[in-house]
Each structure stands twice: as C-alpha cells, then as structure tokens.
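Hey, I was hoping to borrow your eyes for a little while. No rush at all, and the record is pasted right below.
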Amino acid sequence: MARSLKKKLSLIDIFCVSTGAMISSGLFVLPALAYAKAGPGIIVSYVLAAILCIPAVVSTAELVTAMPRAGGDYFYIMRGFGPLLGTIAGFSSWFS
C-alpha cells in the first residue's frame, strides 16, 4: 500500500511560517549589530557563513528526495539513529 503526503498547508500558511522564521531570526536587528562590530568585513562573514551552510542544505535536499515523508528532521534522525534521538532532535528543532 503506497502512502503519500497530504498537502494541508495553503500558500498563506507557508507564507506566515516563512515570514515568522525570518523575522524571529533578528533579520532587522542583527545585521546592524554585526556591522557595528565588524565593519565592512561583515559582507565577507555572511558569504563565508553561506558557504559553510551549503553542505547542510545539500545533505538535507538529498534526504528529502530519498525519503519523502512527513516529519522533517525527526524522521531522518529516527531512521538513522533510532526513535529516542529522533524525538530529542524533533523537540530541539521545535523549541529552537
């Protein structure tokens, strides 16, 4: 029996979640504080941080395409390390 994901989020739901994630990250405050500390070198810092994030993004994309299931980080960590660590990772992601 094939199981498929059910699309329950509307465009408005996804927009609200994405906007909340960006704004809660300090999108409008943190760059100014970083510029005050690092000066023009902050651009290099942001580029370096983006380059360092590429492996995490690529590996997540591989997991999503290999195992298209609901659950996100919980599901992938649960499959690799067991239900306990999957639950801990899921709650950690939720609380962050």
Observations:
- Residues 42-66 form the longest helix (25 residues).
- Residues 11-95 form one domain.
- Helices lie at 11-24, 30-38, 42-66, 73-81, 83-95.
- The CA atoms of residues 75 and 81 lie 10 Å apart.
